[in-house]
Specification:
By secondary structure, the protein is α/β, with parallel strands linked by helices. 28% of the residues lie in helices and 33% in strands. It has five helices and twelve strands.
Length: 223
């Protein structure tokens, strides 16, 4: 069993969000496909101290290891908080593989020397692909409902000079759960070498805004 965890470390205005995904192989139209069963979604209180986040992550990974018999891989958004906070998580969650992720512009995902560079366009394309092919399965829970709301608010804005911006731009909205989800489902298996994937990006000439699809809430993620 393979378990991947995504964690978006909160800062002053956004809470920390955690997503746990179980990978399951299912028959596809031409070959087996990896489906992502979201087993846990959590949003910690705003301004939760980093040592407390580390303790919660340790407890979570211990429970995952106990139930699955495998140590999870944890992808941590280190873009804003940096490696020192990642080191705190590594020191606490010794029962997991902690991988810092740094968001960049573009449509590439690279993994080298235990770190990931993840383009925001890659993350959006990946989520769209999983949603449209029915490979992403959410539980019916309050946090899953909050995630669905975030997906409705998550926008892709393209300016006149063709620069892309991704996130929740409405006042009072958040995208921490979407980020945690994207981190957890970014690959079909941990690792992937120096160049794992490049997303296809359509050429856009006009300024416009579009949104991600909202997945159905699946009771018990049993479909």
């Amino acid at each position: 069993m393979t378990i991947l965890v995504g964690i978006d470390i909160g800062q002053r205005r956004d809470p920390t969000a955690i997503c746990v995904a179980e990978l399951e192989s299912r028959p596809g139209p031409t070959r087996a496909e990896i489906h992502f069963l979201i087993r846990h979604l959590d949003r910690l209180p705003l301004r939760t101290p980093y040592p407390e986040v580390a303790r919660r992550l340790h407890d979570l990974c211990s429970g995952v290891a106990h139930r699955s018999g495998a140590s999870p891989t944890v992808y941590v958004d280190a873009t804003g908080v940096g490696l020192p906070v990642t080191d705190i998580l590594k020191a606490a969650a010794t029962n997991a593989r902690i991988v810092p992720v740094f968001f960049t512009h573009g449509d590439r995902r690279t993994e080298e020397k235990g770190e990931v560079r993840l383009g925001k366009a890659f993350l959006v394309s990946r989520l769209q692909a999983l949603l449209q092919t029915g490979r992403l399965h959410l539980p019916r829970s309050a946090e899953a409902g909050a995630l669905a709301a975030e997906l409705r608010d998550y926008e892709i804005k393209v300016s006149d000079d063709a620069n892309d911006k991704y996130g929740a731009f409405k006042v009072g909205s958040h995208d921490d759960l979407v980020t945690a989800l994207g981190l957890a489902v970014q690959v079909d298996s941990p690792g992937g070498g120096a160049l794992a994937w490049r997303a296809g990006r359509p050429v856009r000439k006009e300024k416009h805004t579009r949104q991600l699809e909202r997945p159905p809430l699946v009771e018990g993620v049993d479909k």
